[in-house]
Amino acid sequence: MEIAKAVAVALVPPVCAACGKSCRAEAVVCTRCGRRLADAEPLLGNGPAGLDRAWSSAPHEDVARDLVAALKFRRLLPVADLMAERIEWLAPAHMLSGAIVPVPPAPPRLRRRGFDPAGELAAALAERLDAPLEICLERRGSGRQVGRRRAERVGHPPRIHACGVAPRSALLVDDVLTTGATLTACARALRAAGSSRVVAVTFARRL
Ligand SMILES: [Zn+2]
């Protein structure tokens, strides 16, 4: 079985996680996509309410959007490390201090995929930065949300609670920053549990 798997890997040429075209062995993206991602401009600002600062490595478009989808829907774990690498290289040093706190996934019964891209990205970043990883937030499902249409759910902020004591300085990590409602709920929960500094980094940001 192992030999069959090795042969299959050798016969299937490596493909770019973003565009699907063939690329160098061991590479996550092809040269062209790598260059386009390198050209994307990071975004730094005050971020959603409750945060001290928020930084995103790229707008949620083009190669960055393709990589977010590759991690979320195709569970390509090397993509999480590529995202963490970009954050490590490009984020201002003052953004990368503190304990890394992943934005919590939806409760299992509300999750369709059973996979947690934010958690994978946070773990990869913690390893690269040699920073503590504190999984101290959890998201509770609201019975009222089940069966609601997405448009109706958006108006209801997620219910996020800290489990235990939160780190004094927290670095929230998520794959994509969308409306900011989730990061705001995370920041509130962290401050209520003892954090005095809360910043966020995300790989991509919807504009
Ligand atoms: Zn490509």
Broad shape: globular
Q: Count of helical segments?
A: 7
Q: Tell me the number of strands.
A: 7
Q: What ligand species are in this complex?
A: zinc ion
Biggest sheet layout: 5 strands, mixed
Derived structural class? alpha/beta
How would you describe this protein?
This protein is α/β, with parallel strands linked by helices and 207 residues long. Helix content is 37%, strand content 19%. The chain has 7 helices and 7 strands. Strands 1-2-7-6-3 form a 5-stranded mixed beta sheet. A two-stranded antiparallel ribbon has the order 4-5. Strand 6, helix 7 and strand 7 form a beta-alpha-beta unit. Helix 3 (62-74) crosses helix 4 and helix 4 crosses helix 5. The longest helix has 14 residues, at 77-90. The chain is globular. The termini are far apart. It binds zinc ion.
Kindly list the characteristics that best describe this protein.
two-stranded antiparallel ribbon, 19% strand, 207 residues, 7 helices
Q: Secondary-structure blueprint of this entry?
A:
Elements: H1 2-11, H2 31-39, E1 43-45, E2 53-59, H3 62-74, H4 77-90, E3 99-102, H5 117-129, E4 137-140, H6 150-154, E5 159-162, E6 169-177, H7 181-192, E7 197-205
Parallel strand pairs: 2-7, 3-6, 6-7
Antiparallel strand pairs: 1-2, 4-5
Helix pairs in contact: 3-4, 4-5
This protein binds zinc ion (ZN).
